[in-house]
């Protein structure tokens, strides 16, 4: 019993250990996603319903004039495609947040958080993993949409990738921030009503903002202030090989703010500690 | 309610090792409150390396809160928690890498295979894939689940899941193992298996174990005992001493005398 008398020297963590951890978290998220086929299907069906039914019905009602980044008159379907891509990421971000509440109830979050690596890094890995899953969903959607004559320039499929990563991170960290405040699983319905729907409808996803401005200037300001609008516009421009700098700035700053907020919310000396024992505790 | 004479010198109650020894776990004057409700009050005790320490308390005594503080799920409001001398608040990384935990609720991914669960955990500790695969295979062999390596965790029995969770907690070769009521919901055979497995870890690998329970029959004569009741440590020390000092014949009666609690027949509190 004498060998265990000294204090271990701190040895820190190597870059390789960080990378192992990151790939492990992304790998697990991917595996879980593959096991949840219903989740994949519903993630695809939702935007496709909008595309096939809503857009087809609305095409005649809503004329779209030539607005950047489009250079010709476009069909309504083409207009809402970027909005639907962002919608996929919005749902995925909130669903990851749902899974974090679920994880916390089931205790999986605990497994993650007792990892010795810095907690901020663990949460960042979790966000990246969620974003990677959303990319799979978005590209599957784009593939189907291609057969529906939504054919952005082929280089657009590549240039949209960084935009999607950034918007995925923004929406994911927003979801994570919200999840830290949700106590129970059932509250996800509240998230739907108070976060997803207002963000989606008060944005440029379904209608160009100049149209909104004609109807209601106040709503227009609200839409302009909505980070989701900027996620949509960032994706829309990137899909056509262009950069919307204002949207990029808004999305990037929101990502930073939400991410710091989420990491603070999961900081043991703040967020979780205040709320008392998590579910399932004796 | 008459409480017995206070148990002697709670702060200096680790006499069996040389004083220079760094305890596997040291809890020093820890208090914790949820708003107005005080869950832990000035709790202090040590777990020595290669020892089995039973944390005995009723549901709601504060055991899970204490576990959440040790594993850094909650911030420490006052007091200090050290793992082999590393302060959990100041250097959590160094402290947590020496710690293995089995939480009371199941924390496995049910849809992933046994091996996948272990590999994920290894990755969280930065253990390379090759090394992780070797260790997983070895640990699965030790808990007798090698043949199930590729099947989904969902298909395992309760006892098998617990064994897997213990194996997972050992994957990064911790020197302190915490288990929060690990036998809850298991049948007699599975319980006995788990207990003997963990006791083996203490004797063969020198791991310090903190075993939270409300079941008296899981505690043996040679164990260290910490009695936690309504957030306070009522007694601590070698089990035989705690029992004698409470003027009792067995843990059951000692616990009853200490807490004034009604003890259910059948060995549970």
Automatic annotation (TrEMBL), chain A:
For this protein, the record's InterPro entries field holds:
ABC2_TM, ABC2_TM_bact-type, ABC_2_transport, Alc_ABC_transptr_permease, T7SS_ABC-Transporter
What GO molecular-function term can you cite, just one?
Answer: ABC-type transporter activity
| Family, as annotated | Belongs to the ABC-2 integral membrane protein family.
Enumerate the subcellular locations listed in this protein's record, separating them with semicolons: Cell inner membrane; Membrane
Domain ABC transmembrane type-2 stretches? 38-269
The topology of this chain with respect to the membrane is:
Multi-pass membrane protein
- Protein's UniProt keywords contain NADP: no
User: Where does the UniProt annotation place the signal sequence?
Assistant: none
The UniProt entry, under PROSITE patterns, shows: ABC_TM2
Q: Which residues cross the membrane?
A: 48-67, 79-102, 123-148, 160-178, 190-210, 245-266
* Protein's recorded name: Transport permease protein
> Highest lineage ranks of the organism?
Bacteria, Pseudomonadati, Pseudomonadota, Alphaproteobacteria, Hyphomicrobiales
Sorted UniProt keywords: Cell membrane, Membrane, Transmembrane, Transmembrane helix, Transport
Domain of life per record: Bacteria
User: Which GO CC terms are listed, alphabetically?
Assistant: ATP-binding cassette (ABC) transporter complex
From TrEMBL, chain B:
Task: Write out the GO MF terms.
Answer: ATP binding; ATP hydrolysis activity
Q: Where is the ABC transporter domain?
A: 25-255
Q: Which Pfam families match?
A: ABC_tran (PF00005)
Return the InterPro entries for the record.
AAA+_ATPase, ABC_transporter-like_ATP-bd, ABC_transporter-like_CS, ABC_transporter_ATP-binding, ABC_transprt_ATP-bd_su_PQQ, P-loop_NTPase
Q: Which UniProt keywords apply?
A: ATP-binding, Nodulation, Nucleotide-binding, Transport
Q: Does the keyword Transport apply?
A: yes
Determine the domain of life of the protein's source.
Bacteria
UniProt record similarity statement: Belongs to the ABC transporter superfamily.
- Task of the protein: Involved in beta-(1-->2)glucan export. Transmembrane domains (TMD) form a pore in the inner membrane and the ATP-binding domain (NBD) is responsible for energy generation.
Protein's UniProt name? ATP-binding cassette domain-containing protein
Source organism per entry reads Bradyrhizobium niftali
